[in-house]
Amino acid sequence: MDADNFLKILGERIRAIRKSKDLSQEQLAELAGLHPTYISDVERGKVNASIYSCYAIVSALEIPFSDLVSPYVDKKTVELENDFAAMAGLIRKMDKKKQVIVLSAIRCMIAAMDSADI
Length: 118
Fold this sequence. Notes:
mainly alpha, 75% helix, globular
């Protein structure tokens, strides 16, 4: 993977996680101690963020560093990972009762697919 592709994927991942946590770019920038324009540039893959800037971003997002830089095989995988992050954000916004129902439904669907060998 070339640098431009990597930076684009990294930016897309940051954006998806930020949105899943219902944060604006300005809020993320404040939490990370970075400028909002810089966050925008990182999310668009326009700058090569330093290791420290990435550390500040993952700390602000409260995620492991590995979640940000784990290798992605192809565009479909990136899209799925971003969808997972977005769904997690939607579930986090629910009250506890709804969270329990949604997670229970997901577990049942997974068990049904496993037993059907899908």
